[in-house]
Amino acid sequence: MLSLSLSHRFADGGFALDVAFEAPGAGVTALFGPSGCGKTTILSAVAGLMRPASGRIGRGGEVLFDSSSGIFVPPERRRCGVVFQEARLFPHLSVAANLRYGLSRAPTGAEGPGLEEVVDLLGIAALLARRPGRLSGGERQRVALGRALLSRPRLLLMDEPLAALDLARKAEVLPFLARLRARAGLPILYVTHALDEVDALADTLVLLEAGRVLAAGPVEALAARTDLPLAARRDAGVLIGCVVGAHDARRGLTRLDFAGGSFLVPLRAEAPGSVGRVRVRARDVAVAIAPPAGLSVQNILPATLAEIVAGPSPHEAFLRLAVGPTTLLSRVTRDSVQRLGLRPGQALWAVVKAVGFGFGGATG
Questions:
Q1: Of 288, 283, 58, whose CA–CA distance to 155 is shortest?
Q2: Distance between CA atoms of 4 and 46, rounded to whole angstroms?
Q3: Are 237 and 223 spatial neighbours (Cβ–Cβ below 8 Å)?
Q4: CB atoms near residue 12 (< 10 Å)
Q5: pLDDT averaged over every residue in the chain
Q6: Which residues face 218 on adjacent strands?
Q7: Most CB within 10 Å of its CB: which of 13, 74, 76, 361?
Q8: Looking at residues 181-189, what average pLDDT do you find?
């Protein structure tokens, strides 16, 4: 487990950081928030690239930094693999040589993946003879990730590794990051301001704003909270763990099963039994007080209205819906609440648009 408590004020008297949180000893912990909220500063402190004014950083039973006792482990002894926005590969070396450089940085006797395993994991066998200048942005990031893994780190730090990529290159790299999350078995601290990356990769979410931690915990739990800034986003909604139940190629549909029901979505490539998450956006969930008929939408689920809470504007409300043990959020107008006579405990039908789904790589 990574435990962190830091305070730091920069010399110009402007930005101040005052944070504390814990990250599990495995899986991906995402530091999420707008630009300038302190995400990269935290990552730099963990890597040893900056020395905070006060606080403590512990990893398992090891203390990396403790201002009260004067402990500051230098960066080269922290065994942190770091992947930045820019790949920072050696331009004069081939991909294979860049990877071998990472391996040369591994401590003697340190356990970790070998060169062939990393090449297979990241799908870069065809790139080994090339130099970085002949790679796409997505390919460079995969090589940078491979180099970091081959240094046999105890903690992987990723500072917005997809931020400089266009949507196509980002879509190229995300599946490899999901595979890494599943197979690497080491904790990852992942900085991002992109919610789709959180959905696909994160197990734990640390929500930051202006140098403070607003909330920290399992990503599914924080996504469902309406008292956090996430609820004001247009893509606000819940994350639901699903299993690919079956495909119907004739109809072009896939059934995703979850605790309490199932969704029909456009045909997916994942094999039956594959697990993942879907984001169901609150704005894509309508409600009906009688069984709806004659709709193009196929996902109509019996639900119970658990709670009506304030929305992001005075004219809106969130409906918290229980579909078995699973929670959905619906974003509606206050007028709809009054016009339909909605009240907690009421039986409703949740009408969910299939186009609102995107299968993520992480699982609960």
A1: 58
A2: 8
A3: yes
A4: 6
A5: 89
A6: 204
A7: 361
A8: 81
